[in-house]
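Reviewer 2 asked us to include a model.

Predict the structure of this chain.
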Amino acid sequence: MKRLVLSTLCLLLAFAAACPAAPVKDDGWSLELGPDATFFPALVVAAGTLRLDTGADPRELGDANGLLGVSVVAPRDGAKAQVELASASGLVAPSSVSVTLPKKGVRYAVYPFIKYNAEQMVLIRQPFAETVTARLTLDGAPMGEKSGRVTVRSINDCVYGYDEDGRWNDTSWLFAAYVNENHPAVEGILKDALATGKVDSIAGYQGDADDVRDEIEAVWTALARRRIRYSSIKTASAESPHIWSQHVRLLGEALAARQANCVEGSCLLASVFAKMGLKASLVNLPDHMLVAVDLDDDGDEDLYLETTLLGDSDSSFDDAAEAGEAVRKKYKSKLKADPRIRWRDKRARRKGGPDEVGLVNISMARELGILPIREPGADRARFRQ
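Predicted model (structure tokens):
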């Protein structure tokens, strides 16, 4: 009897192995969890108010800047879809959107307008896994729910580009969110600039180009006296083969640590220049960044500064300007033609990548709704001089 049972069992196992598993039924929808299932708090906060004319893709519905949502095939022309989405820890509060799927058989990406706690977002300093759950209703009929995990990155992780379906998405405009002209510490820097004695007022473009240059030198001198040293730290909190990102300290963090990499130093100076009413840009180069500023309101004269020389006791303001001028001459044609504020442009665009160069124009960024990342406790903070 035992032999018979064993023989029967072996035959059943062999039959099961020989027969392919029944295919899983495709129910026509799936989760969309952002680039490489990675959630960047800085990108979510900055994109929340981003306004770009990107040649909207008719197959993307709901939030034009959405990153979390679902992909669904329309069962008929004009089908009604409702998507509800939330995360397990409450990082993303329950969010929903109702849309019409125009054409039967077409796959649409539907993104709810995400509700998030901005105060919680800016406190994230270490990566962790988060479960996101979505529910879909089609023409009033529940289609169930699906869950997936995303990697939540630090608020200090600035994603400046990623691959999506073989296309390069340029998000280098996100660096503008680390420029914070409204930070309370900026007023202290301007006060220190006056104390250098190099200028007797901060007048911006009310003076001529030489006056503006003198004011910029005063700011440079004030920061140099704070002994802010160059720091090579730029490694992001997690890695992804399809995402380019780097660690960027918030303005107050850089001042408190008295350290700044090339991006942080450029964002720091751009913050002060923007507060002065000057037109500043971040100069994005392959694996490097400088700051540029117009010396007159018409943009006829400009100044590029190599910010890594800020804390170098052997280098002067003129040395930083000379090094910046060499960069300006090398990349002039590419930089002047590229304000670098674009994302998800569905119209024809050239192939890009992390080795491209371009300007991140701070004034343009603010006009398009890219706000500074608000630093926790900055309104009450006191930084050492």
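The longest helix spans residues 317-336. The chain has a mean pLDDT of 84. We have added this to the supplementary material.
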